Amino acid sequence: MEPPDPTFHDAIIDFLPDATFVIDLDGKVIAWNKAMEAVTGIPAEAMLGKGKYEYAIPFYGVQKPMLANLIFMPEAEIEKRYDSIERIGDTLVVDIFIPDFRPGGVFFWAKASPLCDPQGNITGAIETIRDITDRKRAEQEIVRTTRKMAEIIDFLPDATFVIDLDGKVIAWNKAMEAVTGVPAKDMLGKGKYEYAIPFYGVQKPMLANLIFMPEAEIEKRYDSIERIGDTLVVDIFIPDFRPGGVFFWAKASPLCDPQGNITGAIETIRDITDRKRAEQEIVRSRRSLADIISFLPDATFAIDKDGRVITWNQEMEDITGIPAASMMGKGEYEYAIPFYHDRRPMLANLILMPEAEVENLYTHVQREGDTLVVDTFIQNLRGSSGRYFWAKASPLYDLQGNITGAIETIRDITERREMEGKLVRSNAELQIAADIQKSFMPEVIPQITGFDIAARTVMAKEVGGDFFDVIPFEIIALDKGTLGLLIADVSGKGVPAALFMALSRIVVRVNVLWHRDPAKAIFDSNNIIAQDSKSGMFVTLFFGILQEKDRTLTYVNAGHNPPVVFRSRMDTLEELMPTGIVLGAIENRKYFSRTISIGPGDVIVMYTDGVTESINAQEELFGEERLNEVIRKNARCPAQEILDAILLAVNEYTGDLPQFDDITLLVIKG
Predict the structure, then answer these.
(1) Tens digit of each residue's pLDDT (9 = 90 or more) over 239-263
(2) What is the CATH class of 156-271?
(3) Measuring CA to CA, how many Å separate 370 from each of 89, 367, 397, 419?
(4) Domains 156-271 and 284-412 are alike in CATH topology
(5) DSSP secondary-structure letter at 341?
(6) Are strands 19-24 and 29-32 parallel, antiparallel or unpaired?
(7) CA spacing 20 to 30 A to 359: which of 64, 105, 277, 509?
(8) What is the C-alpha separation between 221 and 119, in angstroms, rounded?
(9) pLDDT band at 140 (very low <50, low <70, confident <90, very high)
(10) What φ, ψ does residue 178 adopt, rounded to 5°?
């Protein structure tokens, strides 16, 4: 078999979609295809014959070796010039970034292979360059595999073959081998339509052969052929190619020499069976599309590419008061009148407009891929003062991926917006309540000689029912060096507990300043709170009077968690048990006062159940034993450090779990 005319190769190179050039052994350009002209802006006639790396100037701005030149260089020189070059046989492949090629730089994929004469001697090199900037910029979303091809035609992803004017095969790519199961070596040089046998089982003209035939012959062989310039495109079903048959899309174009003479033809074939099999289902789906859209709970309409209504569902009728029969086929933005009382673009229309136009019409439109989403307020809609709407519009496509129209869904979100407004106001009011409640807590803990006192409340929510108080008795001269210490926990959480806490704090504070006996003060406080408590809420409370002169604490425990007392001299722990019931439950119940001495180094820890009832991921309680262990371990520290150690231990125990209850601690160090 005679080798194919070199003009065939020129035509094939020119057919390639990638920028490609060829150099001889002297490094002079002998081929510079149209894609290379488009990429560099340098016409082939201005580059052919140029050497001394002049063809590198359009890319790098200087004369330097290109990948094709490295074919002639030793391995060490190649590795020195490229960090990550891939060698596939005698072919070199590399990805490279050229920062100054265009503003922002360009990523190129390049592939170079030697060209050999029939004796296997290298006569030159061919390099193909592809702009892969888009792929590189978006490689998290787009995964594309580059075919590794040993020969020029193998670059193409679709099954492709080339014939000369005599109808003999001069190229048969790897994708064609995969489709037909026939290797290239068994097909190259074959003619007389032998290449049709893998498809039809007989020798008959393929689409590429029709390039050489008159128009009448083409029309006789294919009922529905499409001509795009001198290119032929057709869909065809071959029933015996595989069991059940296969649909193929085929495209054939002539190959021409530099003088414009046809020298052969190239045909690309793509298996579109899956797409064709789906068309029947799509047709059936289209029949019921109107029913589906009508069933949608949101108001929905669709327009074609000319902006005419093709769907107007029941919910759209309800919102606008316009029946579908009166709106179908209407264009010129007539469907906007029920909303805006004027003809103006709806969101669906913006799908068909350039992005700049979209931004002009909506300043706050959100783009999600090819979908537009917006919230908008429409005044005077059907007698209302105005309604808030959420709208979403997406393009509609045909089977070829062309936009044929747009669909828009509209949802009335007025109630949601009103609820959001109420929530914002409620949160603002809640913050005010939190600030007020915080103001109830002493900013500075009064101190008396011989004692170190620390206290803190950590709310589970913005507001809560825990509180503490430190009440100085210095308004009475005889009471100098005396403090009232109070810790309490209201049943319940949130705002109701916070309100009940405020009432309880005021009542208790007034009574403990009036009565010197803690039992009497808490007795009167309980009666007042019980009379005012209509919701069944109650308060657990521990109140004690700490005196500097005799280092005693006289206390009442109204159903509260027993404070823990660490005795420094004996290294023991004891609890201050309840001396009466909770406040607010029953009137006229007796309370008893008790007094303990506080020695140097002794520690008293008052706490609410938010400490001991904190849970971990296994839903196990922190408990009194862990609290006692922390107190014993840190008893020699100042009061504030003891308090911080307890909070740290609780936080480490609960981990990332949200705080379930308010936590309040009051620590006295003797």
Answers:
(1) 988 898 899 999 999 999 888 899 9
(2) alpha beta
(3) 43, 7, 11, 31
(4) yes
(5) S
(6) antiparallel
(7) 105
(8) 43
(9) very low
(10) -65, -40
Nearest-angstrom CA–CA distance, 88 and 22: 19
CA nearest to 147, candidates 109, 114, 187: 109
Which homologous superfamily is 17-154 in? PAS domain (3.30.450.20)
Looking at this protein, which amino acid is placed at residue 528? I
* Pair of tokens at residue 346: 């709806």
12 against 22, higher pLDDT: 22
Return the sign of the alpha-carbon dihedral for residues 645, 648, 652, 658: positive
**Count of CB atoms within 10 A of residue 288's CB?**
10
Find the radius of gyration of the CA atoms of the chain: 43
Spatial CA neighbour of 469 closest among 507, 433, 516, 434? 507
Task: Give residue-wise pLDDT tens across range 258-290.
Answer: 888 999 999 999 999 988 887 766 556 555 566
Whether 271 contacts 179, CB under 8 Å: yes
DSSP notation for 283-318: HHHHHHHHHHHHH-SSEEEEEETTS-EEEE-HHHHH
Fold of 284-412: Beta-Lactamase (3.30.450)
**Contact assessment for residue 50 and residue 39, using Cβ atoms and an 8 Å cutoff:** no
Look at the block and give the residue holding tokens 């936590």. 663
- Look up tokens 């007020």; give the residue: 436
pLDDT at site 162: 95
End-to-end Cα, the chain, rounded Å: 110
Q: Phi and psi (nearest 5°) for 665?
A: -135, 140
Could you tell me which CATH class the domain 442-669 is placed in?
Answer: alpha beta
User: How is the chain split into domains, by residue range?
Assistant: 17-154, 156-271, 284-412, 442-669
Q: Which two tokens stand for residue 306?
A: 């000319």
From the DSSP assignment, how many helices (H) and strands (E) are in the chain? 23, 28
**Burial degree of 531 (CB within 10 A; 0-12, 13-18, 19+):** exposed
Contact status, residue 146 vs residue 125, Cβ threshold 8 Å: no
Check if the beta carbon of residue 16 is closer than 8 Å to that of residue 155: yes
Which letter does DSSP use for residue 641 in this model? H
Angle at 201 between CA 200 and CA 204, to 5 degrees: 60
pLDDT band at 438 (very low <50, low <70, confident <90, very high): low
Check if the beta carbon of residue 519 is closer than 8 Å to that of residue 591.
Answer: yes
DSSP for 389-452 reads: EEEEEEEEE-TTS-EEEEEEEEEE-HHHHHHHHHHHHHHHHHHHHHHHHHHHS-SS----TT-E
DSSP 8-state code for residue 583: B
pTM (2 decimals)?
Answer: 0.43
- The total of other beta-carbon atoms located within 10 Å of residue 303's CB is 26
Q: What percent of the residues of the chain are helix, what percent strand, and what percent coil, each to the nearest 5?
A: 35, 30, 35
Taking the CB of residue 571, how many other CB atoms lie within 10 A of it? 9
* Partners of 469 in beta bridges: 486
At 155 the three-state DSSP class reads helix
**pLDDT at site 23:** 92
How confident is residue 462, by pLDDT bands cut at 50, 70 and 90?
low
Phi, psi of 162 (to 5 degrees): -130, 135
Name the pairing type of β-strands 572-575 and 564-567.
antiparallel
The two structure tokens encoding residue 659: 């705080």
Spatial strand order of the sheet with 366-368 comes to 309-312, 299-304, 403-412, 387-397, 371-378, 366-368
Strands 169-172 and 19-24: unpaired
3-state per-residue secondary structure call for 11-23: HHHHHCCCEEEEE
Record the tokens describing residue 550, joined without a space.
């005799």
